[in-house]
């Protein structure tokens, strides 16, 4: 019985160690590596990111600590203290996942197909946005049309599903963005909540009715940078991963 109990304890311990290793933030499993996934944040450095306004990473406004990439609190101003950060290279067809944790009343976003040459003045860089928001508190949730500024929406264009699975403030939610040519998807915690086709009359009507109508051909870039938004609210990111998908016609 003692031998059996000892063996059982060893098995349980080994299983716990394996589960812990698999769950370690900012790492890739062998399966993910084989599938082509790459980390966009290693949990320790700002490698792979720069300011949307210049070649260097911002000296203030962002913090790397305890395996998290965090926007610091500057009172909720768009563009915040340091401004947005973007990847150091562009992406076209991809699948992106990121865990995010918001604070009460927070606002942020993950943008893609970003062109930093647009809007060089105050405010955020221009691109399509996966909205990150405290829907219950932040006033932006009640603006726009039919909830198209709420969490996981294609900001100011397509509202996320009303039955989207949202975890409470302080817990980790997982965003997933999938782009295959004209086809785009937003996912929240393993549920698809937005789907669209670019380059269509329907999509262009959405643009024309949005705040983006002032930017010619908005949303029709074939590649662009990925951006994390500094909106002046404390928001943390981890496990930011991407894999490039084959080109589509």
Automatic annotation (TrEMBL):
Domain 3-keto-alpha-glucoside-1,2-lyase/3-keto-2-hydroxy-glucal hydratase stretches: 36-243
Top-level taxon of the source organism: Bacteria
Record key words, sorted: Signal
First and last residue of the signal peptide: 1-19
Key word Signal present: yes
GO molecular function, one term: hydrolase activity
Matching InterPro entries: AL/BT2_dom
Protein name: 3-keto-alpha-glucoside-1,2-lyase/3-keto-2-hydroxy-glucal hydratase domain-containing protein
Organism: Terriglobus saanensis (strain ATCC BAA-1853 / DSM 23119 / SP1PR4)
The keyword Signal is annotated on this UniProt entry: yes
Upper taxonomic lineage: Bacteria, Pseudomonadati, Acidobacteriota, Terriglobia, Terriglobales
